[in-house]
Amino acid sequence: MLSLKICAVFLSFTWSLALAAPVNDLSPSPLAKRAEDGPGSKANPKQGVFKIQGWENLAEIDCYIMLCILGTSVFQRGPLDDNWGNNQFKEWGGKNEPFHDDNLRRYGTSRASDSNVSPEDFPWRSIRLGDNQKRYLTGGPHAEQMSQAGCITNGYNGHYGGDVIGHDEWFEIRWRKEDAHLMGEMCKAWLENDLSKCGNNKKFNILGAVGVVLAQLVYYYVRSEGRYYHATQKGAKRDLQSVQWDIDPEELTWPEIPPDAEEVKRAIVVLDGAGNELARTEKRTVVELDEAGKELSSSGKRGVVELDEAGNELSSPGKRGVVELDEAGNELSSSVKRGVVELDEAGNELSSSKK
After folding, report:
1. Per the domain annotation, does 155 fall within a domain?
2. How many structural domains is the chain composed of?
3. Per-residue DSSP letters for 22-60?
4. Is there a domain that residue 172 lies in?
5. Mean pLDDT in runs of 10 for the chain (355 residues)?
6. What is the reported pLDDT for 82?
7. Distance CA 303, CA 83 (A)
8. Range of the domain at 195
9. Looking at the domain assignment, is residue 156 inside a domain?
10. Alpha carbon of 97 to those of 134, 232, 332: distances in Å?
11. Is 310 a member of any domain?
């Protein structure tokens, strides 16, 4: 509860700043021109200034999502409904506690360190989602979330020099200029619109850990499946790992096979339906096929052609005739040879009357 007071103790001091001009804040793209629509409309969002002292790590996560995933800092505050924010948190998987020890394996999630078990959701649960937008979750420290809650409320109320943001009004997220020294590498990149900090392999020292890959810690929830997925980054195309998705398949070229390439000839092995070699007792007669794969008629069959080891047909002087072999592949002696045995289509030996 001590961290919650960080934002609360400045209420009386900052109240007078609501009327001050110009606004002293930090924003990646200040709105230079106001549209004709009234303040708080989508075309003319208000300036929401927020203090990040006490939740600097969570601010880094928020900056990462705004810069690398959403590509915007303009949002709409939710309706005046006490249950609306909690329902949003539940709908987008926060209530499942996906970063607790007993749920990491269940949901396939990961966190920066053991102390980051509290689901940090952005856009904040007090924000309406736009078309095709998702609410993203990251494991964060509970103490920072307590401080963040008070600072967000104070920011909506204009206590840090920004506009008062009413329910259902549009606003642009800005950080207090006094907090510039608290910003980490990602929030500085957000201010400069530096997409080079985005990517699937970028590492940061954040959330009490060294070399954290933010892309591996940010998830969105698909309620119909009960599963969490990693977010897709807008700036990830600069990363070498993502370049492969930019290749046009029609531009791929494949090496041509030389016309004089030597064909590797192999012996024919009879296989069953599962691809296993048939035992000798299961082997069937060899059926000759034409080039279309159809069985040759009697007139088209060429008979058995003997080949040498190179796969070339033996000339007449070189032909040895049919040699009978035993199970081991050795030539049978004259006393053991059975002669040629005729088989029916099922592979059974024909009786004398059917031969």
Report:
1. yes
2. 1
3. S--EE-SS---S--SSPTTSSSS-EEEEE--TT-HHHHH
4. yes
5. 49 34 56 62 94 96 94 94 87 89 90 90 92 90 93 96 96 95 93 89 86 89 88 51 30 45 47 65 55 63 60 59 63 57 67 55
6. 82
7. 85
8. 5-244
9. yes
10. 18, 22, 76
11. no
